[in-house]
Amino acid sequence: MIYTITVNPSIDYVLQLKDLKTGEVNRTSNDVKLPGGKGINVSRILKELDVDSTALGFVGGATGSMFEELLSKHELKTSFTKVQQDTRINVKINDIAQNEETEINGAGPAISDDERKAFMNNLDGIGEGDIVIMAGSLCKNLDAKFYLDIAETIQKQGADFVIDTTGQALLDTLPLHPLVVKPNHHELADLFDVTFKNEQEIITYARKLLDKGAKHALVSMAGDGALLVTKDKAYKANAPKGTVINSVGAGDSMIAGFAGTFMETKDPIESFHMGAACGSATAFSQDIAVKNKIDEVYNEISITEV
Q1: Per the CB 3.0–4.6 Å rule, which of 59, 82, 97, 243 could disulfide with 19?
Q2: With contact defined as beta carbons under 8 Å apart, do 147 and 133 qualify?
Q3: Which residue ranges in the chain fall short of pLDDT 50?
Q4: Is 126 within 8 Å of 3 (Cβ atoms)?
Q5: Range of the domain at 146
Q6: Would residue 178 be called left, alpha or beta, if left means φ above 0 and alpha means ψ between -120 and 50 degrees?
Q7: CA dist 96 → 93, 101, 102, 103, 186 (Å)
Q8: Distance CA 38, CA 9 (A)
Q9: CB-side neighbour CA atoms (13 Å) of 245
Q10: How does pLDDT run across 100-122, given as a tens digit for each residue?
Q11: What is the pLDDT of residues 148-176, one digit of tens each?
């Protein structure tokens, strides 16, 4: 089983306006409410790939009930921890005239000690053969050590984990041997305070993540494709042709494709191929990609050793 953890999920309230005028009353031309969160995006892609997953996280209040109702349309398995404070709402304003998007993200609920303990107890059933994917921001009173605590717990129980975060929070988990880490090339450069001059330098620094404990490193490079770095080899996936519509969720989709395929095949190269297809397919879609689009893009991607 794959478990996805979205510590701070949201209702994403997406508003389209023909022309945003600040300081004035504006009326939308269209709006939609979506269940948001990086781990939720991962579970949705896994559903498209027909891979079982269970979504974990904190939900609370009237907005938490609404979040679960929105999510129920996607028919995902969930095991959320209920909290007293409200699930957050993120507002995304699309200004059609300026072709700009403005985001206003809520902080999310404060998590009590008892609620934190209940969440950790909910991990008891996870064990050998399972993969846990941690992705997204934390609630306002949880520090980065929360992810480290989860990683230590599930490692003791024999499960693999994937963490999609950056900075010190990522570095702290590397000695616990995450199955895969996925910085983009900018985030990788920031981790080591360097500037990359070429692709080989990216591979060199991605391998440093393996030296520190990661089992595999994925590095996305936008229009230049993506890299998979293993202990002794490196591979590149080309960037397929298409119009980028939605960059939100593309990285989550890549992780889902890799982890879901690795769960079934234990083949990192095939997992990389599917991850690259899922990421690009979502980038070319209005929302999280569907299976037909993933299959279409998969056939346009080739994996070469570099």
Answers
A1: 97
A2: no
A3: none
A4: yes
A5: 2-305
A6: beta
A7: 9, 9, 11, 14, 29
A8: 8
A9: 9
A10: 889 999 999 999 999 999 999 99
A11: 999 999 999 999 999 988 788 889 999 99
> Counting beta carbons within 10 angstroms of the beta carbon of residue 184, is it exposed (0 to 12), middle (13 to 18) or buried (19 or more)?
middle
For residue 305, give both structure tokens: 């050793």
**Those residues with Cβ within 8 angstroms of residue 32's Cβ, 6 or more apart along the chain or in another chain:** 13, 14
Q: Which residues, in sequence order, are bridge partners of residue 227?
A: 219, 236
Segment 85-101, tens digit of pLDDT: 999 999 999 888 888 88
Q: What is the pLDDT of residue 193?
A: 93
| 281 backbone dihedrals φ, ψ, rounded to 5° | -60, -40
The residue written with tokens 């027909």 in the block is: 50
Strands, DSSP E only, in 80-158? 81-83, 88-95, 100-104, 131-135
Cα angle for residues 66, 72, 76 (degrees, 5° grid) = 130
Provide the CATH number for the domain around residue 154.
Answer: 3.40.1190.20
- Inter-residue contact 73 to 50 (CB < 8 Å): no
SS3 186: helix
Active site residue 113: no
Length of the chain: 306
Q: Which of 252, 267, 287, 295 is catalytic?
A: 252
| pLDDT value for 169 | 82
Check residue 107 and give its pLDDT: 92
Q: What are the tokens at 29?
A: 């031309």
Task: Indicate the number of domains in the chain.
Answer: 1
